[in-house]
Amino acid sequence: MRKKILITGGGGFAPGNIISKADKSWEIFTLDREFPGKLPEGVSLREMDLTDGKALEKALSDHSPEVIVHTAAVSDIDVCEHNRELAKKVNVEVTARLVEYCARTNTKLIYFSTDSVFDGKKGMYTEEDKPVPLNFYAETKVYSEELIKKGLTNWVIIRPSLIVGLPVSGTGNSFLRKTLDAVAEGKEVAFPKEEIRTPLDVITLSLCVWELAGTNLTGYFHLAGNDRTSRYEMALRIADKFNFSRNLVVPKQPDATGGRAPRPVDASLNNAKAKRTLATPMRSLESGFDLIIENERKKGKDI
Ligand SMILES: NC(=O)c1ccc[n+]([C@@H]2O[C@H](COP(=O)([O-])OP(=O)(O)OC[C@H]3O[C@@H](n4cnc5c(N)ncnc54)[C@H](OP(=O)(O)O)[C@@H]3O)[C@@H](O)[C@H]2O)c1
Predict the structure, then answer these.
(1) Which terminal CB of the chain, N or C, has fewer other CB atoms within 10 Å?
(2) Residue ranges per domain, the chain?
């Protein structure tokens, strides 16, 4: 008997990759506004807006999942900053409904938070460090984390660092896809020099999610790569690996007043707990790039 799992936002960048790495022991269904490209075999989709409470409740009772992976969110930091009502509705109120459902049905909830919950003053944050959000996106994530901790016992909160990879279809929130598309047209790409992150490839992230879904592990997990790097330096390494000119990578000026929401300077995450607890190995940036390229080649795609 296959275990039933719901993945919210399956048409997006990270969730699409998670779905693509499922093994046959899972019966997957996903809820999203739409699914770009071809729906993978064996996956069922209900197209809906997750903020429609009645439709969400109906979908949950029709499918009765044993595990929910809640990834759907307004994931653009600047969109959240300038559309707070929408961000609250999607990022907090949907989580609240899922928490209520999971509490009632004893369903495991795996929630996607973010490295941005920290203020970035210290870096290499552990699961024990206290979140201090600097922007509204991070506030919605911290608020959701609190709802989960108060309402449930069987939960996992994943705080991914910057996720590197290519979407299975569409563009989603993949900065790598957007970067490769831009440089293919000869456009410059701007990355901040002062923002430090511990990027993780989306394939390792996906394998961790399946491990967390299939075991009785609970609690916080910082899913991050082994390398601590500025986003600018990371972009230069992407240029080398994905064969475009380093001259196309330019520094992005810090611009908290010009419409860009404030970001933590050093939001690097300590991945010691993930390394200690999970069988899935955490990777260096270089090894993550190799995994992404190998994954595309297996699909017959050239990058
Ligand atoms: N990418 C990163 O580097 C990163 C880092 C840390 C944490 N995260 C977190 O990881 C999760 C996945 O991120 P991602 O980059 O894969 O984001 P993504 O590509 O934007 O995927 C999110 C999906 O959720 C869907 N969605 C949003 N609002 C919805 C609604 N009201 N009803 C139905 N579907 C809705 C989106 O559809 P639309 O496209 O139509 O809105 C999209 O398909 C998010 O929770 C994000 O905050 C991401």
Answers:
(1) N
(2) 3-165+199-227+268-285
Contact 73, 9 (CB under 8 A): yes
Tell me the pLDDT of the chain (303 aa) as tens digits.
899 999 999 999 999 999 999 999 999 999 999 988 888 888 999 999 999 999 999 999 999 999 999 999 999 999 999 999 999 999 999 999 999 999 999 999 999 999 999 999 999 999 999 999 999 999 999 999 999 999 999 999 999 999 999 999 888 899 999 999 999 999 999 999 999 999 999 999 999 999 999 999 999 999 999 999 999 999 999 999 999 999 999 998 776 557 889 999 999 999 999 999 999 999 999 999 999 999 999 988 777
Nearest CA residue ID for atom 11, ligand 1: 71
Q: Phi and psi for 160 in degrees, rounded to 5?
A: -80, 145
247 alpha carbon to ligand 1 midpoint, in Å? 31
Ligand 1 mean position to 111 CA, how many Å?
12
Compute φ and ψ for 244, nearest 5 degrees: -130, 165
CA 8 to ligand 1 center in whole angstroms: 9
Q: Is the CB of 59 under 6 A from ligand 1?
A: no
Tokens of 139: 């506030």
Looking up tokens 């996106």, which residue turns up? Answer: 137
User: Is residue 258 exposed (0-12), middle (13-18) or buried (19+ Cβ within 10 Å)?
Assistant: exposed
Is 33 a pocket residue for ligand 1 (Cβ < 6 Å)? yes
